[in-house]
Amino acid sequence: MLNKKSVDDICVKGQKVLVRCDFNVPLQDGVITDENRLVAALPTLKKLIADGGRLILCSHLGKPKGEPKPELSLAPVAKRLTELLGQEVVFAADPEVVGPNAKAAAEALQDGQVMLLENTRYRKEETKNGEEFSKDLASLADIFVDDAFGTAHRAHCSNVGVTAFMKENAVGYLMQKEIDFLGNAVNNPARPFVAILGGSKVSSKISVINNLLDKVDTLIIGGGMAYTFMKACGQEIGTSLLEADYIDYAADMMKKAEEKGVKLLIPVDTVVAKEFSNDAPSRIACGDIAPDEMGLDIGPKTRELFAEAVKDAKTVVWNGPMGVFEMPNFAAGTIAVAQALADIDAVTIIGGGDSAAAVNQLGFADKMTHISTGGGASLEFLEGKELPGVAAADNK
Ligand code: AMP
After folding, report:
1. Is the Cβ–Cβ distance between 38 and 25 less than 8 Å?
2. Is the dihedral of CA 102, 108, 111, 114 positive or negative?
3. In 3-state terms, what secondary structure has residue 348?
4. Which superfamily, per CATH, for 7-174?
5. CATH of span 181-382
6. Mean local confidence (pLDDT), 363-379
7. Tens of pLDDT along 141-174?
């Protein structure tokens, strides 16, 4: 269990509470296309409202790079949250985030009322953890609650800097839940414990592979990163994704797996095409891939192999798609893994990002134990790193 002060340990009645949420949701023409992160924030918000807190919510959205960008305003989030909470969420439309509108709205708050600040990344100090913006944010409230797991791997003003200027710093229910699920899976897993890693690059998952090899019974590697492993086994991989600088590393990891008695599985067949296009004619390659072909998905034998490998698992952590799942013709491997996890009786944890999007899109969300709201944060957690956003909260 996370040993940090939580919303159950603070008294918020009549207090102004600055709540850092992760409202970094995808928007298309001002419409929110995936509101999972808003829904995930509701338990903490409802608890603080019921306890009579005066809530000042804040979040970043996209990458406005330190200046106001109307298309990245949080105004649509305030509107949707008003509907989801069933009460008004006042939007403070200040280009400088903590400006006259925000200050006036914060002063006017009554117990149980809610307001939302403008995108914290409109301020260039935000991502540099600058003191001035941290103090501005802190000046609005008495207590700070961080529920933004998706940002926990970053030390920014609105999740870390601000804590230096607050009387009390607690974490919200979402943060607690994320850390408890991921922490239990990694440090105290029901066994067999299987990790499935995919996505494009070995280089971005080096530390995860290394750390997980100390914990898991089976490590499955698919997606673009598998080709560097296949190359390390002496296989021809054509024009598939390759990180030549990491071939030795892949070989080292396979050796480490063998020494530790960890089963390490890589694809035995692949779906290959001559072009990176959904419409490119494809075929199944077993073993070597021709010089003018690239692997874009795991093949049918691999799908069976991976499904078999998780069949008796009691804990599974999955991060990264098995192929170029954005193209329907190369999504079958990712769908097969999602289906395999949906079918088993195990703790199944989806580590955010693309795999979470795939599971949600495919309608398997309610079959998984936990779908993380933070891709980067869950990956850094799986690397064994301490997340600055979590460390900054007061200990119990
Ligand atoms: P990452 O951000 O590293 O988790 O990688 C996710 C991306 O990997 C997705 O956009 C996938 O399309 C891509 N990907 C997965 N498999 C392959 C592959 N075989 N070739 C190229 N890209 C891939």
Report:
1. yes
2. negative
3. strand
4. Phosphoglycerate kinase, N-terminal domain (3.40.50.1260)
5. 3.40.50.1260
6. 92
7. 999 999 999 999 999 999 999 999 999 999 999 9
**Residue 376 appears among annotated catalytic residues:** yes
In the reported structure, the alpha carbon of residue 360 is separated from the centroid of ligand 1 by a whole-number distance in angstroms of 17
Helix (H) or strand (E) holding 169: strand 168-171
Q: Which residues line ligand 1 (CB under 6 A)?
A: 199-201, 204, 223-224, 241, 295-296, 320-321, 323-324, 326, 353-354
Ligand 1 pocket test, candidate residues 205, 324, 382, most atoms within 8 A of CB: 324
Q: Ligand 1 center to residue 197 CA distance, Å?
A: 11
**Hey, what amino acid is at 274?**
K
Q: Are 42 and 81 in contact (CB under 8 A)?
A: no
Return the SS3 of 156: coil
Q: Do domains 7-174 and 181-382 have the same CATH topology?
A: yes
pLDDT digits (tens, 9 = 90+) for 306-354: 999 999 999 999 999 999 999 999 999 999 999 999 999 999 999 978 8
63 is catalytic: no
Interval between CA 351 and ligand 1 midpoint (Å): 15
Q: Note if 352 is an active site residue.
A: no
Domain ranges of the chain: 7-174, 181-382
201 is catalytic: yes
